[in-house]
Amino acid sequence: MELWYTEKQTENVGITCKITQTLHTEKTEFQDLAVIDTLQFGRMLVLDGMVQTTIKDEFVYHEMISHVALNTHPNPANVMVIGGGDGGAIREIIKHPGVQKATLVEIDGKVIEASKKYLPEIACALDDPKVDVRVEDGIKHIAEHENHYDIILVDSTEPVGPAVGLFAADFYRSIYRALKEDGIMVAQTESPFFNADLISRVFKDISAIFPITRLYLASIPTYPSGLWSFTMGSKKYDPLAVKEEDIAQYPTKYYNAAVHKGAFALPNFVAELLK
Ligand code: SAM
């Protein structure tokens, strides 16, 4: 018998993958968690019926949420990730030679446990000595810090449940305060095809707080529509001013100097959302 998993991405669209087995399911304090094995994308982490990451395409998202900011900041020593309990962003962050400390603030400890057990390729850096893993609400953590981090990455779930506040203007103001005077934030901001209103609103909110705001794109097959956006707020450094020779050399599968620049080239319908 063939088994298929479908994520209903909008009222009218879904993604369907043939699966070989369900490895784990549980109801945590915050969400329904599942790890399934698919033929096309390998093992897949699903929260509340939404694909979070898969073994085959995770590199795109994790490299792009991390390396654009890491290579825009000249000295990214102290970096934090809010959400991101799978550990993929942390694995990328500690590749950068300038990083001395990477803090992960994930609200749901069960996501970290399941990722370490079933997705070790992604979670492999969570026990690195440079990494501080905290099971806390990211909103509370950020509100308790001032002038502290060089880079903050918001690697959140979709804006439902505990992640709603991670897309709010008040939260971006707290991030601004938690960053040092030349700090940078990047948030994952969903699909330009399916989440146009969210992208417009978040871009406007971040532009009202940070002097430099930029949107960039990446192609991620298992995320709704396959085209994904990230919004950067920067106090001082412009990602478009980065020189090719200043991009640190370490192994990546998607990110490179040309992608760093090209990711900011926006199709007209996306540029329209930012006006
Ligand atoms: N790459 C993913 C995506 O775009 O679908 C996100 C992956 S990561 C697993 C998202 C994490 O954010 C989840 O594990 C969730 O528990 C966490 N999260 C949601 N709200 C949070 C909050 N307020 N503070 C900290 N973590 C939160």
UniProtKB/TrEMBL annotation:
Transmembrane segments: none annotated. The keyword Cytoplasm applies. CDD domains: AdoMet_MTases. The keyword Transferase applies. GO terms for biological process: spermidine biosynthetic process. GO terms for molecular function: spermidine synthase activity. S-methyl-5'-thioadenosine binds at Q31, E106, D137, G138, P162. Spermidine binds at H62, D86, D155, S156, T157, E158. It catalyses: S-adenosyl 3-(methylsulfanyl)propylamine + putrescine = S-methyl-5'-thioadenosine + spermidine + H(+). Pathway: Amine and polyamine biosynthesis; spermidine biosynthesis; spermidine from putrescine: step 1/1. Homodimer or homotetramer. This is Polyamine aminopropyltransferase. It comes from Carboxydocella sporoproducens DSM 16521. The lineage of its organism: Bacteria, Bacillati, Bacillota, Clostridia, Eubacteriales.
